[in-house]
């Protein structure tokens, strides 16, 4: 299995996203639709991630 899909309740949660590439950007786009507080750690974030920060 290469992917492990999970469903989490995000209300009141803090989520740390590690990475700044296309995969991280795709996840960030979805996470921004939730009420979670999001922190991103990336050495070289994609321009859209940098703009969000």
UniProtKB/TrEMBL annotation:
Coiled-coil residue windows: none
GO molecular-function term, one example from the UniProt record: methyltransferase activity
The UniProt record lists the keyword Transferase: yes
Keyword vocabulary terms for this entry: Methyltransferase, Transferase
Cross-referenced Gene3D superfamilies: NAD(P)-binding Rossmann-like Domain
Pfam families the UniProt entry points to: NAD_binding_7
GO biological process: methylation
Presence of keyword Methyltransferase: yes
Top-level taxon in the UniProt lineage: Bacteria
Protein name listed in UniProt: Uroporphyrinogen-III C-methyltransferase
Lineage start: Bacteria, Pseudomonadati, Pseudomonadota, Alphaproteobacteria, Rhodobacterales
């Amino acid at each position: 299995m290469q992917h492990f899909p999970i469903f989490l309740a995000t209300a009141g949660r803090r989520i740390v996203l590690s990475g700044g590439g296309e995969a991280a950007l795709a996840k960030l786009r979805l996470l921004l639709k939730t009420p979670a507080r999001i922190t991103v750690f990336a050495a070289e974030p994609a321009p859209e991630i940098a703009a969000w920060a």
